[in-house]
Design goal:
Protein name: Galactose oxidase/kelch repeat superfamily protein
InterPro entries: F-box/kelch-repeat_ARATH, Kelch-typ_b-propeller
Strand content: 35-45%
Helix content: under 10%
CATH class of the largest domain: Mainly Beta
Structural class: mainly beta
Number of strands: 23
Largest sheet: 4 strands, antiparallel
CATH superfamily of the largest domain: Kelch-type beta propeller
CATH architecture of the largest domain: 6 Propeller
Distance between the termini: 25 Å
Number of helices: 2
């Protein structure tokens, strides 16, 4: 996504009544820009069309923000016109940050209906994984932005008890090896999809611990695991681990800082980012404010 004047398009929530609200029984989502230098949030940049579904996955590709799939409760704005029936969607909407018309547009639908699918974008393609039953469509598919077309990707060659719905909602993109890492909870396997050969490789057939709060640096996966009984952040730092998927072993992790703000639980939308230069960042929502360490 292009950044102009140090701004980036992203959904922002100040409080429930101001930027996210219901119109009748329909949830309305407004989009804004955040100035990365001043920290100021703009006025409404755009309002997502009511046909877009809750629990869709947003991903940036070039200047565009795409919203993929989601859950429909059968409201009057259902794109499939299945009024009164809860179901998943394959609809795709996008917003072009470089366009002057400031309108959401509809892209070709995915090959499968998906609820909060995992998605990764490269400069010209969007890769989508999981969150669909096996008979409802392919495990993975790719959207070519230039061709405006979805194509099926091959399934991994793994045990027959693999469940497509067990694919991790967070997948890790390793650009240096041109591969995407996907974890399957049904058989505890860590799989890698190669973007060049469009083939799968099993990196670890029995990785018993996985967290969707994860990032990849080199050949190491850093993850924050949910502690028992949702202990506070200052307590569950001991659940932060590092796994070397080439050597297939866990590494020792040492903390060099303390949390300077009230500690959240894992359920507060906590995210983990790699900032480069050996730095990690945790971010989470607390009382509608974004906090970090």
């Amino acid at each position: 996504m292009r950044r102009a004047n140090n701004q980036s398009c992203r959904p922002e929530k100040r409080d429930f009544g101001d930027h996210q609200r219901y119109e009748g029984n329909i949830y309305r989502v407004e989009w804004h820009t955040l100035n990365l230098q001043s920290g100021e949030i703009s006025e409404t940049l755009s309002t997502m069309p009511l046909e877009a579904r809750l629990y869709g996955t947003a991903v940036a590709c070039g200047n565009r923000v795409y919203v993929l799939g989601g859950l429909c409760l059968g409201d009057p704005f259902c794109p499939d016109k299945k009024i009164g029936h809860a179901h998943d969607h394959n609809s795709v909407f996008y917003f072009d940050c470089g366009s002057l018309d400031r309108k959401w547009k509809q892209a070709p639908p995915m090959l499968a209906t998906r609820f909060s699918p995992a998605a990764v974008a490269t400069p010209r393609k969007i890769y989508v994984f999981g969150s669909t039953p096996e008979k409802a469509g392919p495990l993975a598919e790719v959207f070519n932005v230039e061709l405006n077309r979805w194509d099926k990707l091959p399934d991994p060659l793994v045990a027959s008890d693999l469940c497509f719905q067990s694919a991790s909602r967070v997948v890790l993109f390793q650009s240096s090896r041109s591969q995407i890492l996907v974890y399957f909870g049904s058989d505890y396997s860590l799989q890698a999809f190669n973007l060049i050969s469009e083939s799968w490789e099993c990196l670890d057939p029995s990785l018993r611990h996985w967290s969707d709060v994860s990032v990849i640096v080199g050949d190491v996966i850093y993850s924050l695991y949910e502690p028992p009984d949702c202990e506070l952040f200052t307590e569950f730092r001991k659940y932060f681990g590092a796994y070397h998927f080439v050597h297939k072993k866990w590494l020792d992790v040492k903390w060099l800082c303390k949390s300077p703000v009230p500690a959240p639980t894992i359920s507060c939308g906590i995210k983990l980012f790699h900032l480069g230069k050996g730095l990690m960042c945790f971010a989470w929502y607390s009382s509608n404010f974004l906090q970090y360490i």
